[in-house]
Amino acid sequence: MNLPLPDVPEVRVVGLPQLTQGFDLVDRLDLPMHLKVHGPLAPVTGELLARLSEEIALRGRGGAGFPFGQKLRSVARSAIRRGVRPVVVVNGSEGEPACRKDSVLLNRTPHLILDGALLAAEALGARTLVTVVTRNSTEVSVRAALAERGLTDRRGQGLRARVVRTPERMVSGEASAVIRAINGGPALPPGRRARAADTGVGGAPTLLSNAETFAQLAVAARLGAGRFRRSGTDSEPGTVLLTVSGAVARPMVVEVPTGVPLRYVLRLAGAPPLPQGVLTGGYHGNWIDGPAVDAAVVERASLAAVGGSLGAGAILPVGPETCPLGEALRVANWLAAETAGQCGPCRLGLPAAAGGLADVIGGGGPAALEALREVALAVRGRGACKHPDGSARFVTSALSAFTDDLAAHVLRGGCGRETTGVLPLPLPGRRGTEESVPSGEKVLVDWTLCQGHGLCADVVPELIRIGPDGYPAVADAVVPVHLRGRAQRAVRRCPALALRIEQTQLPAPDTGRSALPYRSGGRAPAGGRG
């Protein structure tokens, strides 16, 4: 079973490095080394910065892929119209278990990210810079980088800079959740849609983008549009960072020019020669089947053409030895537990979707498959944030990608393979007691005692529902902290004493792994740089 990815996995480069330049020299580029490797950066006016972003077709690298130049212009117009100073936010919150590219940048080249953020702040006339992180290692690195530049949150400075720490959760990285956390609230989507460009941190227009986006901006500002466009494709020039894990020999973050064949990236990480399928874009992304891998290159349009997505830059193959739908179920259960608990499509729909997938895998037949598709359709477009949409897309794309495996489960009751657990997930109970994070406990049913009263499903429908046979179907998911009280109440209310809550078995933590990759003599790992 796959353990969670380290904060800073192995880093490789295909071609010439841009974002990862200098990684072959040191583990972390402090300010003097950063300037030695990348050189100084001159300020740029807002119009020139927006034009540069448009000339290199820079899009957000956090998943949504919104054009950066358009976002920059929108914030500038709103700030001028309202006569207020805008705010710049670096979204370094990376709560998805399969993503580590932003953590690599924040840990190893934080000044490149700050270069891009400060460039945007200067162009917009912003006087506040906020960097949001989720992990201890990234917080330490960013605070050290701010100190090296003499940036603090004290009044009277030309620019005030601070770091905000959020829980390591899937929903905490959503833009509205990030702004809510900066404003002093919980790191959860607020349930209402508001454009950050109009009203964000403290009600001010806010330029919010993820860490890689600002690093790309800093690279482009140094190179210029012409040199930047020499690598990658015409429609999407430059390089991208990918986190490659799953069924691979060496989980890694790799910097590649766009246009590189997906098959080559998988081979670099030691993926199976003939994977059953590949999850592209992360746990809110899309599955593609094995044959589609040969037709895909690392580019948004190419991946979309075969049913995939670039998304948050996570690439996860699954090999022939595991049940791919079983792998999808593990993640679907985790996604259901990640709910913010604020809207029905998320709070009720995602556990129902995970339960429906379990029914399909368990031999529920065509009726279970049709019920699952109806649940996934009902969830889409109705959530308070994008978490229900992304989770439903993850499940339905698995049904489309693994048609042979699906037919085996629907028509024959199973595919005959175990679920080996190759997709990385957090260890249960390792993330503290923030609301809605997994508690490390599961609800179990003693079927020798259960009499089908159904009271438990009334108390906690997010975890327990009544199946077609009139008996409870319990989600095979860790109970979120915010549902522990109701789960315990369901146990107490069971007249047959058939329910119980048990602590899950936790794998031993890897205490020997350093936060940074092992290095010897300042040389890059064999076969790549960094």
Automatic annotation (TrEMBL):
GO biological process, one term: cellular respiration
Source superkingdom: Bacteria
GO molecular function: 4 iron, 4 sulfur cluster binding; metal ion binding; NADH dehydrogenase activity
Gene3D superfamilies: 3.10.20.600, 3.30.70.20, NADH-ubiquinone oxidoreductase 51kDa subunit, NADH-ubiquinone oxidoreductase 51kDa subunit, iron-sulphur binding domain
Record lineage: Bacteria, Bacillati, Actinomycetota, Actinomycetes, Kitasatosporales
Protein name (record): Oxidoreductase
UniProt keyword list: 4Fe-4S, Flavoprotein, FMN, Iron, Iron-sulfur, Metal-binding
Protein family: Belongs to the complex I 51 kDa subunit family.
Domain NADH-ubiquinone oxidoreductase 51kDa subunit iron-sulphur binding: 325-369
Listed transmembrane segments: none
Pfam families: Complex1_51K, Fer4_15, NADH_4Fe-4S
InterPro entries: ComplexI_51kDa_subunit, Nuo51_FMN-bd, Nuo51_FMN-bd_sf, Nuop51_4Fe4S-bd, Nuop51_4Fe4S-bd_sf
Organism whose genome encodes this protein: Streptomyces tsukubensis (strain DSM 42081 / NBRC 108919 / NRRL 18488 / 9993)
Cofactor(s) the record lists: [4Fe-4S] cluster; FMN
